[in-house]
Amino acid sequence: MGQPLQSGPPELGAVYRLGIPMARWTATFDYRVVEIDRPHRIVLRAEHPLAHSVDTITVKPGIRGSVVRYDAVLEPRGLFRVFAPVVARSFRAIGDRAAAGLRAALS
Hints:
This protein is α+β, with helices and mostly antiparallel strands. Helices cover 21% and strands 50% of the residues.
C-alpha cells in the first residue's frame, strides 16, 4: 500500500496516498479502505480526475501457507482514456512491485 495518511492499522475509511509515475510526472491517488474483512479481504477505492481505481486484496488458505490475490481495476476518465495503454504499463509495473513486496513480507 501507499503512504498512510493517518496512524494505526488498516480500517474502514483509512486513506493511503500512492504516487503513480506517468512518463515525466507523478499522479497522486488517495486510496480509501471501503471494505475490510480481516484477515481475508480488503477493498480500496481511489477517485482521481484522471481515473477511477478499485483494488481488491484477498487472502485464502493454501497448501503451503496463504494464497494472496491482488486485483486492480483502473478506469481512465475523459481525455486520459487515450493514454490508457501507457497507464496500464505503469500500473502493471507497480502491481509487480507490490506483489514482490507482499511475497517478501509474508514469507
